[in-house]
Specification:
The complex is a heterodimer of chains A (117) and B (114). By secondary structure, chain A is mainly β. Chain A is built from no helices and twelve strands. In chain B, a hairpin with a 2-residue loop joins strand 7 and strand 8. In chain B, strands 2, 4, 5, 6, 9, 10 and 11 form a seven-stranded mixed β-sheet that branches. In chain B, strands 1-3-8-7 form a four-stranded antiparallel β-sheet, with no helix packed on it. The chains are: A mainly beta (117), B mainly beta (114).
């Protein structure tokens, strides 16, 4: 089964510094990977995805993610963090259900990002 | 553009009472629809998904049920709520035309069972 792991429960970074939120994956076949952000009491917002092509994927709000096949990682990055980036971040991988071909996303446990002023 | 609505936004219900949460999607046709529950502000648990009207699949056995009476309407129900049903319920959709693998989420319903 496809899975992702987010090894950090929380990441703390000062405003203006670069940030990285880590995600590793375990898949059979080619991975389709996603990042989402969730602000308090809100739904998840899609940030970016990797399907194929360039290993560096650019997304919303200045975020980008680097796909690394040899390390089976898909880390989320931003060159300069903002206090408003403080939120819960989820990594996800596409999973296809058996013979039905139905697609679902398998989510990691989430990483809380705290950006201090 | 597509939008997804959920209501109510918050709900406080006593144990044993019925539940009905509604989700509607605008601006797309024949979407895949999903219900998730998020407990304690963390991990997401997929509860149900639907590929079409009247077609519901359950991911985990539980006290809840789902229905899709119209193409863009997805309803989560319970006949008798349990304390353990408390949580943040999220509806999501995915387009089936083209190759858009990502899901888009609604604003969620915070359910507290007392």
């Amino acid at each position: 089964a496809q899975s992702v792991a987010q090894p950090e429960d929380q990441v703390n970074v000062a405003e203006g510094n670069p940030l990285t939120v880590k995600c590793t994956y375990s898949v059979s076949g080619n991975p389709y990977l996603f990042w989402y952000v969730q602000y308090p009491n809100r739904g998840l917002q899609f940030l970016l995805k990797y399907i194929t092509g360039d290993n560096l994927v650019k997304g919303s709000y200045g975020f980008e993610a680097e796909f690394n096949k040899s390390q089976t990682s898909f880390h989320l990055k931003k060159p300069s963090a903002l206090v408003s980036d403080s939120a819960l971040y989820f990594c996800a991988v596409r999973d296809i259900r058996g013979n039905t071909g139905f697609q679902k996303l398998v989510f990691g446990t989430g990483t809380r990002l705290l950006v201090s002023p | 553009s597509q939008t997804i609505h959920q209501w109510p936004a918050t709900l406080v219900q006593p144990v044993g009472s019925p539940l009905s949460l509604e989700c509607t999607v605008e601006g797309t046709s024949n979407p895949n629809l999903y219900w998730y529950r998020q407990a304690a502000g963390r991990g997401l648990q997929l509860l149900f998904y639907s590929v079409g009207i009247g077609q519901i699949s359950s991911e985990v056995p539980q006290n809840l049920s789902a229905s899709r009476p119209q193409d863009r309407q997805f309803i989560l129900s319970s006949k008798k709520l349990l304390l353990s049903d408390s949580g943040f319920y999220l509806c999501a959709w995915r387009a089936t035309a083209g190759a858009p693998y990502e899901q888009y989420f609604g604003p969620g319903t915070r359910l507290t069972v007392t």
